[in-house]
């Protein structure tokens, strides 16, 4: 399988994908690969494997081929209707969990996609009241399934973050507004791997070069309306945006604006709080 994938991936990445696929498909641990490598598969399973390998060789992400992935220690269903959760987003979840551990925050995850942020927060913060929205009804179907799969209660509603006239949770005030919105400039698309641009939903990834902060403008306006006094906005970002975003949030009346790095030392997250008397 590794050789089949190498025209598209470098040898190390091809080997990692092959290992991931085989372990997940056959329900084995990685250390078992060498021990069970010569096992004969029944013909029906072998046909599935052949079809899957063809899809992988075409560039389809292994997560979509398997129909699932792991995020923050939990198992999530994924499909081409949702972005594949990334490790950096796990870091965002961990920051929120650490900040609100032992409390009962009201949380709104904007642009929930697979529900990975909302479900992980609901699982880790047992007393939290978690809400989540997305513009895509297909994504919300996946997210609802993931909440059920992981045994948590999250309120999901279809909503466009740009629509501040029709708020889905009009009676609520939130302690946390969290989001991993689209933030990759459209001009970066040409340099990205085909397994991303050809398969993952573009509306969850890309923003216009001429208005690259458009989602953050919407989030800042939304947060002004729905955050409780002292509430905090938490967002994942593109590393080049931070100075502009700090200025944006300051102009929207936020304070305690902090730029935070990911584990690779790159600016990746921003938090901004509303003053008590907003």
Structural class: alpha/beta
Query: How many helices does DSSP assign?
Result: 11
Which series of helices and strands comes N to C? HHHHHEEHEHEHEEEHEHEHEE
CA gyration radius, whole angstroms: 20 Å
Q: Tell the overall outline.
A: globular
Distance between the termini: 58 Å
Described by strand count, sense and barrel closure, the largest sheet is: 7 strands, mixed
Mean of all residue-level pLDDT scores: 92
Report the β-strand fraction as a percent range: 15-25%
Strand order of the largest sheet: 5-4-3-6-9-11-10
Percent helix, as a range, is 25-40%
Q: Low-confidence runs (pLDDT<50, min 5 residues)?
A: none
Quaternary organisation = single chain
Strand segment tally: 11
Brief rundown of the structure:
This protein has helices at residues 2-5, 11-26, 33-36, 43-58, 62-66, 87-100, 116-124, 137-149, 194-197, 214-226, 242-251, and strands at residues 68-71, 74-77, 106-110, 129-134, 155-158, 174-179, 184-185, 206-207, 227-236, 254-261, 267-274. The chain has 278 residues and is of the alpha/beta class.
Structural overview:
This protein has 278 residues and is of the alpha/beta class. It is built from eleven helices and eleven strands. The strands form three sheets. It has a seven-stranded mixed sheet, with helices on both faces. Strands 1-2 form a two-stranded antiparallel ribbon. Strand 7, helix 9 and strand 8 form a beta-alpha-beta unit. Helix 6 runs parallel beside helix 7.
